[in-house]
Amino acid sequence: MGGGGFVADPESPLDDFLLSLSPAPRPRVCFLPTPAGDSERGILAFYEAFTRRDCEPSCLRLFGMPERPAEQLRDKDVIYVSGGNTANALAIWRLHGLDRALVEAWERGAVVGGVSAGANCWFEACVTDSFGAGLGPLHDGLGILPGSFCPHYDGEELRRPVYRELVANGFPAGYAADDDAAFHFVGSELREVVSAREGARGYRVEAGAETPVEPRLLV
């Protein structure tokens, strides 16, 4: 997701869509708020949004004294990563072995996704503000999905020009998502783009070319 989800709207159709991708009749959903520093506000918003849905919500906190955190992901049907600082999250996951656990969850068929940093992390590379006020490249994502990703494509005015310039200068080609738009991959193949509002869409971004990917409107 380029932006949106329950933080912006507790009844976001993007979150309903995410749950619908799991074949489990009552999916076990784990919220991973590491990019946001395990923000209590974000965790509360998650529970408020997901306790009203037909699922079993839980949260994995990594700040403090987590006990065998990787094991807590092994039975989850859906893993939902928050927005926040992509680089910090990747570093903490690697410290606790969550990087391997997340890849293993994807390999066994769990639905994995998230918003902003929670979308960046699955790609080989991304555009991030993890290193300060400005935007810059990050090259060491989890690498489940090839290429690069840029969220908030219509929500922050510098996202489009920074991403296009990076790609023009050799940064891996990839995808960009407007706020309220989401890419759905099956394995590493793009299945479709979905959107929670009119005008929100995705893009394929390559050197010298930006190609809109028209979404399926969820509402």
Keywords:
single chain; six-stranded mixed sheet; 6 helices; alpha/beta; globular; 219 residues
Give a description of the structure:
This protein has 219 residues and is of the alpha/beta class. The chain has one domain (13-210): Class I glutamine amidotransferase (GATase) domain (Rossmann fold), CATH 3.40.50. Helix content is 25%, strand content 28%. It contains six helices and 13 strands. The strands form three sheets. The protein has a six-stranded mixed sheet. Strand 7, helix 6 (159-168) and strand 8 form a beta-alpha-beta unit. The radius of gyration is 16 Å and the shape is globular. The two termini are 16 Å apart. The mean pLDDT is 97.
CATH fold category name: Rossmann fold
- What profile does the largest beta sheet have? 6 strands, mixed
CATH superfamily: Class I glutamine amidotransferase (GATase) domain
* The CATH architecture: 3-Layer(aba) Sandwich
Q: pLDDT average, as an integer?
A: 97
Q: Helical proportion?
A: 10-25%
Low-pLDDT ranges:
none
Strand content: 25-35%
N- to C-terminal distance? 16 Å
C-alpha Rg (nearest Å): 16 Å
Give the helix tally.
6
Strand order of the largest sheet: 6-5-7-8-11-12
Helix and strand string, N-terminal first? HEHEEHHEHEEEHEEEEEE
Top-tier CATH class: Alpha Beta
